[in-house]
Amino acid sequence: MRFTPYLYIEMSSVSVLGYGSLLVGALAVLVTVLVGWQIFVLIDTRALAKRMAKMESSLRSEIKDRLETLQYTMYMEALDIANVAAHAAGADLEDSICLLLDDFKKSGDAGKRFAFIYAFRYMESFMKIAPPERVEAMEQRLSEMDFSISDWNDFCLRVTDFCEGNSSSVDSRSCVRLQQLILKQKQQALERQLQDNEHLS
Questions:
Q1: Nearest to residue 181, comparing CAs of 135, 145, 119?
Q2: Cβ pair 144, 136 in contact under 8 A
Q3: Helix (H, G, I), strand (E, B), or coil: what is residue 45?
Q4: Which of 10, 73, 93, 150 has its CA 20 to 30 A from that of 191?
Q5: Residues of the chain with pLDDT under 50
Q6: Does the reported pTM lie above 0.70?
Q7: CA distance 86 to 71
Q8: Rounded distance, CA 83 to CA 41, Å?
Q9: CA distance 172 to 85
């Protein structure tokens, strides 16, 4: 059987349409797969971000706990070292106390905490061994340090908290003498502040 040219043209156009449909269908499938993949990746990325945020929070909490444990250990060790060092200082206690109080005044949170430990232990040892005339001389030296009322308030609160929390390791008589000394310094600092305010006005 022979095909006429017309019939050949008709059949070739049908086959082209079939290939075109097949190609369009294939492209539609590919686009659908790509869109679906993008949605899957987006969802998976959000889940991953949540997991990472949870891990970060957990790590931060663990690091904080370990730092607090380390700081507490260092704090307890510093107490023992400060106690021994204070006894070893002997006649140099006054100079040591002034240096430590100066560090307390200038330091930030962590440094202030450790400066307080040493200053408290040195002052406690001083109040235990010093005769009245030596205490008076120490009072004079402390008043010359120009501690503000807020500095003495901070130090006084720390002394009170420390004595209440560590009653077994603190000499109560020395602690009372120390608190009296600090109260005098607070009073002098308040008087200086009032005088300065009067001069300004």
A1: 135
A2: no
A3: helix
A4: 93
A5: 1, 3, 6-9, 11, 14
A6: no
A7: 22
A8: 62
A9: 20
